[in-house]
Amino acid sequence: MPPHELIAAGQRAPRIDGCLPPEVAADRPRFTARPYRGETGTASFPESLTAGLAALSANTGIPVEIVLLTTWAAVLHRHTGQSSLLLGLNTAGGGEPSLPLHLELEPKASFTEEASRVRTAVAAARRLTDPSEPPVGLPVLFGPPGTGEEADLALAAVEGDEPSALTLTYNASLFDRTTAAWILGHCVALLTAAAATPMAALRDLRVQDEPVHDTTWRLAVPPGYRFPPPPGPDETLVDRFTQVVVGCAARTAVTGPSGRLSYAELGARAAGTARLLGRATGSGGRVALLCDHDIGAVVGIWSVLLAGAVYVPLDPRQPDGRLSVLLADADVAAIVCDGNLRDRAETLSRGVPVIMLDPARDGVHGDMPEPPVTAESLAYLLHTSGSTGRPKAVMQNHGNVLAHALAYSARVRIGAGDAVPLLARYTFDAAVMDLFGALLTGATVRILDPLVPAARLRAELAASGASVVHCTPTLFRHLVSDLPGDTGRAAAFATVRVVVLGGEEATRDDLATFLRAFPPDSSLVNGLGPTECTVALQHLATRADLDGVRLPLGGPVEGVATRLLDPDGHPTDIFGELEILSGRVAKGYWKQDAATAVAFERADTYRTGDLVRRRADGSLEFHSRKDRQLKIRGHRVEPGEVEAALRGHPTVAEAVLTVDTRGPAPRLVGYVTPATSFAPDTADLRRFLQRMLPEHAVPWRLVSLERLPLGPTGKLDRAALPPPPENGSPTSDLPVSGTQREVIGIWNEILGVTTLGPHSDFMASGGDSVQVLRLLTEVNDRLGVEIPLLDFLVQPTVAAMAAFIEGNRRAHTA
């Protein structure tokens, strides 16, 4: 019997009819300088499998070669999520170029049905090699996958009368031996299942049992560290907070720009406001908090919880239009605010009571309210961006917040004596981890403004004695942005034990920077924790991760399990949507039953929308988003909400939000069509959005089109949308002074653009809040002028910046 055909998968093969070769996740990145290095692994069949394959072939009339090819295609689908596969099929005798084979898998179909379709596809591909037979009705081929280079993965049956083993030839420059053996094992497992149950659906043929991930958490335990007691059966946040206030009364609880509070002072001030709230709202009511990034936010949170109410945090940096929407959505019974925000709170209140946080208001130590709340009582509503065009408020209860906080503090070893910087605002889920993780274990929360120049932020971290730093990768990169590449350990990080990254994808480069700049005994933790389940996955990074393609998300934390789902919500093995299984998931979305039913199919499950891959060691790594939800500088953005805001403008008929990836970071682009005979004024649209949306959700570019491009089915053809101009609206203005030319030169470097005019706006030209800080630092270093952040944001144009610099120079020479 001739050798069984070689079935190859390679990422270097060309497209065929819109189909790409399978992108099996490699262990190491592909570098052109790294040559192909072929190695081979073998997996032998037990005698029962050899007999089962013979019986399957005899009963169905499908050749064993086709059974093997179907198995390989099914395993590749399981690893990549791709149903459209482009493979290279070698002829039996070898020596000839491989045939391009396009397969369309139907995971719901039975194995035998799929094998029959594969046999038809193979026959069609072979006929294409006969020039006397025109390829009528077949896909157009753009050349064979084989380009003279070896495939990354190639499966073959060992030669013999009956196949007794499989061999996998793999590019050892990309794949480890253990990964190759893992993939081979999947082939044998699926083949065994198919031989036993050939009529089973392809997606039901398991390639592996549920992996046993090593759950041992190896983060070092500081000397003398005491793990926090686990939560009691019906313990609430108030119960634990009351215990800590009594036990740590004299210890500093929180510091911020306006001062410091001990645990006793924090408890007393919160109790005093809670008594006023109790009379105004009653237990279980929603209370909005309108507080700056300062200690008032912390006092406000505990005031609401001690009153037995549900806190709804609002960011005063956001426009009144959006805050009004959030207040109406939550149907709040009162607003608690900082003293300097009272007038604004009164304007937004629409008649509900406004209670000002008064530093002079004192309570009696030990006489804190005992609200009638249980572990099931709601603690907060946190608004995220909504795909339906309206914000979604995530509901979470006392018991779950307490469990998440204690699990997080135990894993990163937060306890009495630790200083935990609060960089995220209280409107974000990231703040939940830091605020409660610290204040329920006797640690000190240090409230720091992350939007300051990197050198200043490092100095403030050092002065605070920060031990656990939690931030987004974007903020981490800002923190280390101006450190020289050849510098040693940064002195500012000397006290840092752990850096925790989350909110967006972290990379190997982030790990490399961490290893270079932070103390050798500190640790980097990467992970995933959506607002709907605060702490879900964590990975303790090691130097070995530098050799990988992606920085892993790790495995589930205590109290959490995970499952991967295919597009139909069916459990799968290697690649799919991450579903979290835990009693700690949120209680759904406030007043949005339909959205809750989709994301929370059961009370203890949450479908994240994140597509992830399982690695050979059982850990998970991020791949992409299932839906159109975007992450911009660590913030979650739902295109539907931005599109709804755009359509709310009277000059806009249709609106579409996309992402431009040509720059160093993804940027939002909005496309609009006119509702009148005049094109929308994009500058006016931007000002409109700035009053309605948070800064990170305002598109970098707004492009007006006569109509949106449609595909043959009448749906939007996103690929046909014109690329946005790199430099915004064209301007014929030229710099009129040397200072303007200097400013434009700095802007060009930071924004990565080539032409700007005096009236160019920094944000409209692609800038973000982190780049603003870098800009002001560069201007100070190069031009010797320090421009206050708020002064620049009032008028962030080239001309205004140049005028400020020139005025400063004249003042110093006068």
Quaternary structure of the protein: single chain
Rg estimate, integer Å = 30 Å
CATH-defined architecture of the domain at 7-204: 2-Layer Sandwich
Q: What is the CATH homology-level superfamily of the domain at 7-204?
A: Nonribosomal peptide synthetase, condensation domain
Strand content: 15-25%
Helical proportion? 25-40%
**What structural class do you assign from the helix and strand content?**
alpha/beta
- The number of strands is 31
Give keywords.
single chain; 814 residues; six-stranded antiparallel beta sheet; Chloramphenicol Acetyltransferase; Non-ribosomal Peptide Synthetase Peptidyl Carrier Protein, Chain A; GMP Synthetase, Chain A, domain 3; alpha/beta; 21 helices; five-stranded mixed beta sheet
Your description of this structure?
The protein is α/β, with parallel strands linked by helices. Among the domains are: 7-204, Nonribosomal peptide synthetase, condensation domain (Chloramphenicol Acetyltransferase, 2-Layer Sandwich), CATH 3.30.559; 638-720, GMP Synthetase, Chain A, domain 3 (2-Layer Sandwich); 738-813, ACP-like (Non-ribosomal Peptide Synthetase Peptidyl Carrier Protein, Chain A). Helices cover 32% and strands 19% of the residues. It is built from 21 helices and 31 strands. The longest helix is centred in the first third of the chain and has 20 residues, at 177-196. It is globular. Keywords: Phosphopantetheine, Phosphoprotein.
Can you give me a brief rundown of this structure?
By secondary structure, the chain is an alpha/beta fold.
